[in-house]
Design a protein that fits this description.
The protein is α/β, with parallel strands linked by helices. It has 19 helices and 17 strands. A hairpin with a 2-residue loop joins strand 11 and strand 12. Helix 6 (188-197) runs antiparallel to helix 7 and helix 18 runs antiparallel to helix 19 (493-502). The longest helix has 31 residues, at 373-403.
C-alpha cells in the first residue's frame, strides 16, 4: 500500500515537472587533450563547473559532475612517439598528473572519464554499430585538403581571403582516402529551428547567434567519422570495419553519454541496443543540464553533437554554456613563448581560494579574459586580505577580547543586508552568473566593514554603559561572518570551511538554507581567529 502511494506520488511529480524524481543535475566539462600539462584555461573551465556543481548541491539538488581526459587521436600518438613511449603508457602517465590537478583544484567531480577506458570504448562501439545499422553512415573516397595538426578536412571555403589556410591549421596536405561519413546535411533546418525555439540552449546569447549565423549562411558538410587505421591507429576501432578507427571528436563527445551508461542511466542505455549494463532506475543523468565548454569548440557541441544525439534518438542537453579564452598580460597563452600562467605555482604560493577567486571574479562566463599579475595581487590585497579577511579577523578577535569568545544575544541590524545578499546570490547561482554573485557577496563584506567603522566597537568597549550596544554590534558581525561562509562555500570552499571552524561550528557550510539570519545561538563559544589571507610582499604571483 505504502509502495503504491509512493508510486502514485512519484508519477504525479513526474507529470508535473516533466522529469523524474531521480534525475540528477548533470554537469560536464570539456575533456582535455592529454598531450601536455594543464594550464590556466583548463583550470578556469573546471573551476567554473565545480562552482556550479557545488552551488546546486548547496541549493539541495542531487548533482553529478563529470570531467576527464580525451586520450585518442593523432596529437597524442605523435606526442607519445616523440617521447619513445606507447600511447597508452604515455596517457597513463599524464592522466595521473591531470587527476592530481583535479584534486589540487578541489574539484568535486563524481567521476573522471578517460576515453581509453573499456567502459567508454565499448559504448562508443555500441553507438557506432547502432547508427551504422540505421543507415546513418556512408563510405566514400575523399580527395582534398587535410590539416594534420587539427585532424580535420578542409575545403576551399576554409581559405583566407588571400587563398592560404589559417596558420592555426598547421601544415595542410592534399589527401585521397576512403572514410565513413555521418549524414549531417539533412539536419541543418531542424537544428536552426531547434536553436530558434530554445533560446537558452546555447548561452550566452552572442554564442547562440554565432551558431545560428553559421548554420544560416553556409551549407553543412557531412562529418567524416573515421580515420584509416593504416594512417592513425590510436583510436577506437570501428566495430564493423577493422580498417578504420573512430574520429577523435566523435569518440570524445560520446563521453557525455558513455559515463551515464556505465552508471546505468536507462535513457542512454536504451539507445545503444546492447546488453552492456543493467539499467539502474535510481540513477538518471541524461539529458545533461549543462555542458561547460570554451568558445573554440562550440561548433562540435552546438552542431555535431545535437545531430549525433538526434540520430541516436536521445534528447539534447539542456544547455551549452560557453566561456571565453584567457590571455596573459594581453597576449596569447603559449608554451613556446613562455607566456603561461602555471596554476599549480600560483596555488602553491597564494592558496587555492585566491586562485579560484581571481578567475571567477575577474571574468564573467562568456567574454575573453586577461590575467595580469598586478591585477591578481590587487584583488588579493583589496578584496581578500583587506575585505573579507579583515572583516572575519577583526569580528572574531573582538568577540574573543571583549566577550571571551561567547556569542551575545541575537540582534538583527545587518539581517536585511545579509538577506539581500543571500537572495541575490541564490537567484544569480540559478542563472550561473558566478561573477555577479561574487559582487553581491562582496556587497555584504563591504557593508559589514563599514558597519565596524560606523559603530566603532573598540570605542564602545571602553565604556561600560555601552555594553549592550557592544553585544548588538558583535552579534551582527559574527552572524554576518557565518552567513558569508555559507554564501562563499561554492566559490571558496577552504575559506568558507575555515570561517566555520573559527566560529566554532562543526561541519561544512554547504547548505544554502543555512544562510538565514540568526543561526548563531547566544552563548555559543567561537574557536580561534587566524588570518584567512596572510599579507604577501612577494612581487610575483
Ligand atoms: N579534447 C577537446 C575537447 C573534447 S570535449 C568532448 C579539447 N581539449 S583542449 O584540451 O584543447 O581544451 C579543453 C578545454 O579547455 C576547452 O573547452 C577549451 O576551450 C579550454 N581552453 C583551452 N585553452 C584555453 C584558454 N586559454 N582559456 C580558456 N579556456 C581554454 O578541446
Amino acid at each position: 500500500m505504502r509502495d503504491l502511494r509512493h508510486r502514485i506520488a512519484k508519477a504525479a511529480f513526474v507529470r508535473h515537472t516533466g522529469g523524474s524524481m531521480n534525475k540528477r543535475f548533470f554537469i560536464t566539462t570539456a575533456i582535455d587533450y592529454v598531450n601536455g600539462q594543464p594550464h590556466l584555461g583548463h583550470a578556469y573551465e573546471k573551476i567554473v563547473a565545480d562552482v556550479i556543481a557545488r552551488s546546486r548541491r548547496s541549493l539541495g539538488q542531487e548533482v553529478f559532475f563529470l570531467t576527464g581526459l580525451d586520450e585518442h587521436g593523432q596529437k597524442v600518438q605523435q606526442a607519445a612517439i616523440a617521447e619513445g613511449k606507447t600511447p597508452q603508457a604515455y596517457c597513463d602517465q599524464l592522466a595521473a598528473d591531470w587527476k592530481a590537478f583535479a584534486k589540487k583544484l578541489e574539484l568535486t567531480n563524481d567521476d573522471f572519464v578517460r576515453t581509453t577506458e573499456p567502459r567508454h570504448k565499448e559504448f562508443v562501439q555500441a553507438i557506432l554499430a547502432r547508427l551504422h545499422a540505421a543507415g546513418q553512415f556512408y563510405k566514400e573516397t575523399y580527395k582534398g585538403f587535410y590539416s594534420t595538426k587539427e585532424e580535420t578536412f578542409l575545403t576551399d571555403k576554409d581559405r583566407l581571403p588571400d587563398g592560404t589556410f589559417d596558420p592555426a591549421y598547421g601544415e595542410v596536405i592534399e589527401l585521397e582516402e576512403s572514410n565513413y561519413w555521418f549524414k549531417l546535411r539533412a539536419q541543418q533546418q531542424w537544428l536552426i529551428d531547434y536553436l530558434e525555439a530554445n533560446p537558452t540552449f546555447v548561452q550566452p546569447d552572442y554564442r547562440r547567434n554565432e551558431v545560428l549565423g553559421f548554420l544560416k549562411n553556409s551549407t553543412l558538410e557531412d562529418l567524416c567519422i573515421t580515420r584509416p587505421a593504416a594512417r592513425l591507429n590510436w583510436g577506437i576501432p570501428l566495430p564493423f570495419d577493422k580498417d578504420f578507427v573512430t574520429y577523435v571528436w566523435f569518440d570524445a563527445l560520446v563521453n557525455y553519454i558513455s559515463i551515464p551508461a556505465a552508471h546505468g542511466d536507462a535513457t542512454v542505455l536504451a539507445t545503444s541496443n546492447s546488453e552492456l549494463r543493467t539499467p539502474n532506475s535510481e540513477f538518471e543523468l541524461w539529458p545533461a543540464d549543462i555542458h561547460v565548454i570554451g568558445k573554440d569548440i562550440l561548433k562540435f557541441h552546438a552542431v555535431f553533437w545535437p545531430i549525433m544525439l538526434k540520430a541516436m534518438g536521445l534528447p539534447l542537453p539542456k544547455q551549452i554554456l560557453v566561456h571565453g579564452w584567457w590571455q596573459k598580460e594581453g597576449a596569447k597563452i603559449s608554451k613556446s613563448t613562455g607566456n603561461i600562467v602555471d596554476p599549480i605555482a600560483v596555488i602553491d604560493e597564494w592558496g587555492l581560494d585566491a586562485f579560484r577567486f581571481y578567475v571567477l571574479r575577474e571574468l564573467d562566463i562568456g567574454p575573453d579574459g586577461n590575467w595580469t599579475d598586478a591585477g591578481f595581487r590587487a584583488r588579493y590585497q583589496a578584496e581578500l586580505a583587506n575585505g573579507l579577511g579583515n572583516l572575519v579577523n577583526r569580528s572574531l578577535s573582538m568577540l574573543k577580547r571583549y566577550r571571551n569568545g561567547l556569542v551575545p544575544a541575537k540582534h538583527d541590524e545587518l539581517a536585511a543586508a545579509a538577506a539581500k545578499a543571500a537572495d541575490e546570490t541564490h537567484a544569480l547561482l540559478k542563472l550561473n552568473q558566478l561573477q555577479a554573485a561574487l559582487q553581491s557577496i562582496w556587497g555584504l563584506v563591504t557593508r559589514a566593514n563599514q558597519y565596524v567603522d560606523q559603530t566603532r566597537p573598540f570605542s564602545l568597549a571602553k565604556d561600560p554603559a555601552q555594553a549592550k550596544r557592544l553585544d548588538e554590534v558583535l552579534y551582527n558581525l559574527v552572524e554576518t561572518c557565518r552567513v558569508l561562509a555559507v554564501l562563499l562555500w561554492p566559490f571558496l570552499p577552504d575559506t568558507a570551511t575555515k570561517i566555520y571552524a573559527q566560529l566554532g561550528l562543526t561541519g561544512t557550510p554547504d547548505k544554502f538554507s543555512e544562510a538565514t539570519w540568526g543561526g548563531l545561538p547566544p552563548g555559543h563559544p567561537i574557536g580561534e581567529p587566524a588570518p584567512l589571507f596572510p599579507r604577501k610582499d612577494s612581487p610575483q604571483p
